[in-house]
Amino acid sequence: MEPEQGAVLAAIALPFLGAVLTPLAYRLFALGGERLRDEGLGYAGALVALTSFGLVASQVGREGTVAVSWIPALDVAVRLRVDGLALLFALLASGIGVCIFVYAARYMRGKPNLGRFFMTLLAFMGSILGVAFAADLVVLFVFWELTSVCSFVLIGYYTDDDESRYSARMAMLVTVGGGLCLLVGALLLSVAAGGLFDSGAFDLAAMLANEKTMRRSLEESGLFLPALALITVAASAKSAQVPLHFWLPRAMVAPTPVSAFLHSATMVKVGVYVLGRLRPLFHGPEWTAILVTLGLVTMTVGAVLAVLATDIKELLAYSTASHLGLMVAGFGLQSHYGAETGAYHLFNHALFKAALFLVAGIVAHEVGTRNIDDLGGLWRDLPVTAAITGVAALSMAGVPPFGGFYSKELLFAGTWDAATTSGGFAWLFPALAVFASIFTVVYSLRFIWLFVGDRPETATVDHRPSPALVAPAAILAVLVAVTSVTPELALDAIVQDAAEATAVGPVEVHAELPTHLTPPAVMSAIALAVGTAGFTAVGRVRNAIEWLHTRASVVHPTVLYDRVLSSVETASAWLGPAVHTGQIRTYVIWGLTTACTLALAGYASTSVAIPSVQVDASIVMVLVLATAVLSAVAVTRAEAHVTGVLTLGILGLMVAIFYILASGPDLALTQLIVETLLLLIFLLVIEQMPAYYGELDRRIAVRDGVFSVFVGATATVTVLLAAPPADQPLSETARFYVDAAVPEGGGTNIVNVILTDFRAFDTLGESIVVLIAALSVLVLLAMRSRGETR
What would you report as the CA-atom Rg of the chain, rounded to the nearest whole angstrom? Predict the structure, then answer.
């Protein structure tokens, strides 16, 4: 069944409309008092999210592409693809968005700048929905970058806090840098798709519908590996994969609703989502080697660092990076397990991690601290929150029969299948998966221990949390419990369709407890047993990790990031005074050098060859050009300004004569007029200058000489590349001008006829511009003579 265009467009547009109306709503709610002003925006946002959720849910079971023309000249359209994967991601974004807005209405009460906060949160949700449904590379990139911009504003919510600004800038630089990689990767895909599809080179839906043709085009053009590498880097930056994972824990300075929405359920999954979306295009051994290795390394590093964390949000941040690595590794698997693992864990993780982040906010709100060592035994005062934590954390640990167990079991099955199929290096895949899962169990039990462990004297709860804080987390925990007890509900509703949208062959997602001994079951048992034992000795485990972490601090990504920024600041401090000297000569050199370098780099990147030049010059032409060269040399040797200007005039005159000999009298006339005007201007300026040049600094002379040769060479290469080959046939328009110029234009020179007849309106327009400029000069001169200069 085809999707409804209006419903899909409305689901995306509604959050943006809500963001535009937020300032007005803020003023209206303020009329009802401070509480309505602060909470009203949250509940209004929840209503918008609920409406978008309903619109998206109405499309479940439908599949197809809708399009609205955007930039027809470039074949760019707002193409939106509705399928299982898009619906899964959109339902998670809007559904969890409802819970987040309700939670934020109470959590953010009394905080400053709530209008800006909720406006950005709505725009962010709309951007995520845009990414989910995007079926055009340009549309995908635009929404991708919008998520980064919104994330920057939300992470930097506390604008007066240095750490908040630092973390927001870090997230922006990493994710936007990844966005640039996505842009180049998308352009490479468009180059490979050029001419293949009637809908244009940016139609992602057409590329995925013809993945074999598209892949063959990528391989034949040599763009397969570059495009794969760029898209992988982009996804790694967005989804916090090693070594670009360091921005995610720093982003936890944002308010808890932001952490729950952006950094667990939605934004950080954008990279994973794009990998799942493009999986059919790049599916193969290269894809598996890169993504499975990257994902499992991230899964391991994130899990180990989560055990080391001392802040509950930091623990959840590192665990998020770890689970994102699991999804990347899942989508990277070449077998059917890849699509099944990635799609199923995308669903499970969004539910349990969003619930746990909301729990972290409740704990911080009611106890007043997020330090793990100062928390424990909270179940007596927070029994409902403790129950929520138990369900969500056990799913995160992969304990049967919770949902996280089933999707992690698929990863174990997939890595074991890859190892037995490929052998060799691939045996590291199941080993790393088990090793990372051991630490996943450890940090999950650490989080649970906040509620069931010993209670420090400092952990005091003054009052029970508001229902508005507990209800959203409870709803998510109930969904975790229901989809764990009856996983078929989630599989049949959306997960199976999502897996099929990323699959290359047939897939069938299963979620069942093992009934006999299998390699995945053994791997799960090892992870749970060793992880539980490791938790009983968590102090010694953390000490060992701390020792290793200290030794590796020199190459820690955050340290390297700070060094890079410091180097950029140092280079800027040197470059600024070097460029901004106040001298026109300096600005000309920097500007033309940059322009010429970019032009030559562009020529080199396109691998164009300079065509052969056939020289057909008479002896007179040679003499004229030789005189011009000698004049140019004489200009550099002139000792007086007048001599240099007159010699330069000889050079211009030789160029005019050359045009005459080359049958270009119109160009010769233009050259003579320009040369005469320049000569007069030079002579007027010379009156205000010394008669002779001063001493010339040899270094400046050498620099200017090299610079002039560089600019001249660039101009020469540009002219040679722009000129059509001599044997190239004329275009239809050019042939018409050549054939009709003399008989229909009544002239004897094609250029003159074109300018005065065929393109008379262009010439008339240029003449009017010159006339207006001349009249303006006359008016200014007349006003000056009457003293009306002000």
Answer: 34
For residue 175, with 0-12 CB atoms within 10 Å meaning exposed, 13-18 middle and 19 or more buried, which class applies? buried
pLDDT band with cut points at 50, 70 and 90 for residue 266: confident
How many other CB atoms sit within 10 Å of the CB of residue 558?
13
In 236-250, which positions are buried (b, 16+ CB within 10 angstroms) versus exposed (e)?
A: bbbbbbbebbbbbbb
- Coil, helix or strand at residue 356: helix
Reported as a single tens digit per residue, the pLDDT across 188-216 is: 999 999 878 888 889 999 999 999 999 99
| Under 8 Å between Cβ of 361 and 260 | yes
Q: What is the separation of C-alpha 204 from the centre of its chain, rounded to a whole number of angstroms?
A: 17
The per-residue pLDDT for range 711-758, each reduced to its tens digit, is 989 988 888 887 666 666 666 666 776 777 777 777 777 777 776 776
pLDDT surpasses 70 at 787? no
Separation between Cα atoms, residue 410 and residue 368, nearest integer Å = 39
Mind listing the pLDDT tens digit for each residue in 663-699? 777 778 888 888 888 888 777 777 766 666 566 677 8
With H, G, I as helix, E, B as strand and everything else as coil, classify residue 764.
helix
The residue type at 412: F
Other Cβ atoms closer than 10 A to 471: 17
Burial class (CB in 10 A: 0-12, 13-18, 19+), 503: buried
CB atoms within 10 A of CB 161: 13
Distance between alpha carbon 497 and the CA centroid of its chain, in Å?
Answer: 27
Q: What confidence tens digit (pLDDT) does each residue in 577-628 have?
A: 888 877 777 888 888 888 899 988 888 877 777 777 666 668 888 888 888 8
Residue of 386, 396, 414, 387 whose CA lies nearest to 484: 396
Any idea what DSSP says for residue 491?
I
Helix (H) or strand (E) holding 68: strand 64-71
Q: DSSP characters for 253-272?
A: GS-HHHHHIIIIISGGGHHH
Tell me the DSSP string of 415-428.
Answer: HHHHHHHH-GGGGH
